[in-house]
Amino acid sequence: MLRLMILCLFTTQLSAQPEEFIRGDVNEDGNVNTIDLIILVKHLTGGEPLNLDAADLDGDGDLDFVDALYLHNYLQGHGPEPSHPFPGCGLPKPPVYWDLT
Ligand SMILES: [Ca+2]
Ligand SMILES: [Ca+2]
Which ligand approaches the C-alpha of residue 53 most closely? Predict the structure, then answer.
């Protein structure tokens, strides 16, 4: 029984591993371009599923039209680059926890 519990814990940890991605590369083709913006807007209006981590352009943990505007501005050369990981593939930064004790 103990072996089974340990195996289950190990399996859960493996499946919880974050996957590498490029912020803004919503369709995961290796490029950040207008197609990603179109897919993101389609998703936000009830359309296609997508890589939610990559679509969170500002990396705030929420997916909304601010992310679409962020990507639009970046693609037009009027906004900052997507947050980490960008332009290369990588893992998101771990969350910062405040110790209030
Ligand atoms: Ca793409
Ligand atoms: Ca966001």
Answer: 2
